[in-house]
Design goal:
beta-glucosidase; alpha/beta
Length: 721
């Protein structure tokens, strides 16, 4: 349907029909939905009429081929112009086959794998009738108190941008019109939601525009450059104005400067929330500010529905703004092929064939194995099949390993850790006990754990957060494990047996009482449907851990936010002429995190040597070549992540102490060496200056190459312009 035909369709629409296209409602509002009529409380208070429902443009959270087809068919019978509905849902890290949470996928540093997880999620979701997913979330995160860090890929703008592109490619493919196994992606939350003050959800964000552009905007831009079809507004303020009503952010930057002409949707209720934010006196003013800012779809509040017509009639809003929004929505429906095939990829038969298929489960097992980070290992891992293992802890036989935003996943169908271990090596040498619940415990549970541990060669502890402790509205001030779990560790530690801790969680934790008490720590995050099988593969050495942290683990919550790419100060700790007291430091804890960005261990060891730079000078036309030799000095095959960072020693504004610029994963056999070559260009040295101009500076730089952001070899060069 060419644009002129869409324009003709818009001209046939009444103002009420146009406005209803901008409304998104949840499934229970619609005829044909199995939950139809179950509209109570806040949903009932929306005051939506049957006429509005018949003309609504999109549905939130409705899935399942049978139900979606029923709703779409009923809607098309009731809609005067036969305009199909868009079906949207939060398919974040899997539909029914659940993959590791995005923060865990980030730790894989594997773009092909990330793209594949999104493609599989899209295939399952599309067969179930979904057209749009509210993913990827690409918010830069530096504060683990914020529960939604699990939904991001970490604290680095370059790496987040690479993952943003990979997820968009996976969800959308190359041809949304013809390829019905894909869904449209919606990048979120625009912008800077990950910088909420105090790590508290929905809270204020306040930063300079230079910092916004330098650190927080690149990943959104990368997603859009990859062709992402939609953008979701953030709940937070940006420069004092909530994002959903922020004309400068949405129209001036997103649409005019970046050229985005896709659909912009509010987050749930965000239009009406401009009232408590304090920039709108009532719903009418909230509707006015949102449409002026360029928000096309209002999710789950009725400000547009109740007030846009009046705003147009009294001359406050030009009807052309509504026409623009409707056109963008109709263009997306056309691109998805909904006018020709309103059911698109929805298929009861295909849904049954694809969902939780063996191929998808194998991909989930692979992704989980690639996402678990070995944080500590004092010669206790990998386990041996003949060892007697006491598997203890609230996650030993728990299916709560899918994590937040896995609402369609089944905990019952997830492979528990105990099941994964038994399936791999049998049950003869494995005894299990709960030890405690996640936040409480009994003397009987502890006694059972002690009995199991007394006869074991190695104690494996399965500990962590239940899934409601992270994700949206999952902010925590105390990011240690619950005290009952720390007490369990302390009690079992008195047996003087080797102890391994497996962590199931959605954020970097303060690991005091864990890291210092046990012999090995494997960070499993929420590993998804095949989590137990993947962890068993790692525990018994069937696979070698290869993941590396993309978010620093704090030494203490008192450091937060703590991240590798921070600025220096005028009085840095550890400088050659630094005083003992009058430097930037804590008196009671280190400045540095417990575990830095890029960190992770393997069952083998790697040595870096012969690091060199091709020249001590770089010019605009002549890049540098940086080489390093990496040798597997251990006894088993392993995968190493070689990381390249730079530092601008004297910029026009202060520059981070390190910035990731490139990385390479290599697999080496025992005693094998490989020389790696990186090319560093002038373009990679550019940054936003005080006037927001994006350029490089002449002067001295450091290049750092190594296995993480801390353990690096330093090379110096000069840029001459």
């Amino acid at each position: 349907m060419p644009e002129q035909q869409l324009r003709t369709l818009i001209n046939q629409m009444s103002i009420e029909e146009k406005i209803s296209q901008l409304l998104q409602l949840a499934g229970p509002f619609f005829e044909g939905a199995e939950s139809q009529g179950e509209i109570t409380g806040p949903m009932e208070a929306l005051g939506i009429t049957d006429h509005s429902i018949r003309n609504t443009g999109s549905v939130l959270g409705l899935t399942g081929a049978k139900e979606v087809i029923q709703v779409q068919e009923a809607h098309l019978k009731n809609n005067r112009l036969g305009i199909p509905l868009l079906m949207m849902a939060d398919i974040v890290h899997g539909y029914k086959t659940i993959f590791p949470v995005p923060l865990a996928i980030g730790c894989s540093w594997d773009m092909d794998m990330a793209e594949n997880t999104a493609a599989i999620a899209a295939a399952e979701a599309s067969a179930a009738g979904v057209h749009v997913t509210f993913a990827p979330m690409v918010d830069l995160v530096r504060d683990p108190r914020w529960g939604r860090v699990m939904e991001s890929t970490g604290e680095d703008p370059f790496l987040n941008s690479e993952f943003a592109r990979a997820f968009v490619r996976g969800f959308q493919g190359t041809d949304l019109t013809q390829d019905h196994t894909r869904v449209a992606a919606c990048v979120k939350h625009f912008a800077a939601y990950g910088a909420s003050e105090g790590g508290r959800d929905y809270n204020t964000v306040d930063m300079s525009e230079r910092q916004l552009r330098e650190s927080y905007l690149p990943a959104y831009r990368a997603a859009l450059d990859e062709g992402c079809e939609m953008v979701m507004t953030a709940f937070n303020t940006v420069d004092g104005i909530p994002a959903t009503g922020n004309r400068r952010l949405m129209r001036d930057l997103l649409r005019d400067e970046w050229g985005f002409d896709g659909v912009l949707i509010s987050d749930w209720g965000a239009v009406k929330e401009m009232i408590p934010h304090g920039i709108a006196a009532d719903e009418a003013e909230a509707a006015y500010k949102a449409i002026q800012a360029g928000v096309d779809i209002e999710m789950m509040t009725p400000a547009y529905e109740h007030h846009l017509k009046g705003l147009i009639e009294n001359g406050q809003v030009n009807e052309s703004l509504v026409d623009e929004a409707v056109m963008r929505i109709l263009k997306l429906k056309h691109k998805l092929g909904l006018f020709d095939n309103p059911h698109r990829g929805a298929s009861i038969e295909l849904e049954e064939e694809l969902i939780l298929s063996e191929t998808h489960r194998e991909a989930a097992r692979d992704a989980a194995a690639k996402s678990c980070v070995l944080l500590k290992n004092d010669n206790v891992l990998p386990l041996k099949e003949e060892q007697k293992i006491a598997l203890i802890g609230p996650f030993a036989q728990s299916g709560d390993i899918l994590g937040p935003w896995s609402w369609l996943g089944s905990k019952e169908e997830a492979i528990q850790l105990y099941t994964g271990m038994v399936n791999l090596v049998g049950s003869t040498n494995i005894t299990t006990a709960q030890g405690c619940d996640i936040e409480t415990g009994t003397e009987a549970q502890l006694a059972e754990a002690l009995l199991a541990a007394q006869h074991a060669d190695v104690i494996v502890l399965a500990l962590g957060e239940h899934s409601d402790m992270s994700g949206e509205a999952g902010s925590l001030a105390d990011i240690r494990l619950p005290q009952i779990q720390l007490d369990l560790i302390a009690t079992l530690q008195s047996l003087n047996k080797p102890m391994v801790t497996i962590l199931f969680n959605g954020r970097p934790l303060d690991l005091h009482g864990v890291y210092d008490q046990v012999d090995a720590v494997l960070e499993a995050w929420y590993p998804g449907t095949e989590g137990g099988a993947a962890i068993a593969d790692l525990l018994y050495g069937r696979r070698n851990p290869s993941a590396r942290l993309t978010m620093s683990f704090p030494y203490s919550v008192g450091q937060v936010p703590v991240y590798y790419n921070h600025f220096n100060t005028g009085r840095p700790q550890g400088a050659p002429d630094a005083q003992v007291r009058y430097v930037s430091q804590y008196l009671d804890i280190p400045n540095e995190p417990l575990l830095p960005f890029g960190y992770g261990l393997s069952y083998t060891s790697f040595e870096y040597s012969e690091a060199s730079v091709s020249s001590t000078t770089m010019t605009m036309e002549q890049p540098l070549t940086i080489k390093v030799r990496v040798t597997n000095t251990g006894e088993c095959t392993g995968e190493e992540l070689v990381q390249l960072y730079i530092r601008d020693i004297a910029g026009e504004v202060v520059r981070p102490v390190k910035e990731l610029k490139a990385f390479r994963k290599i697999i080496l056999e025992p005693k094998e060496s490989q020389e790696l070559t990186f090319t560093l260009t002038e373009e990679q040295l550019r940054y936003h200056h005080s006037n927001l101009e994006y350029k490089s500076d002449s002067g001295d730089f450091y290049a750092y190459i190594g296995s993480n952001s801390k353990d690096v070899t330093e090379l110096k060069f000069t840029l001459i312009k």
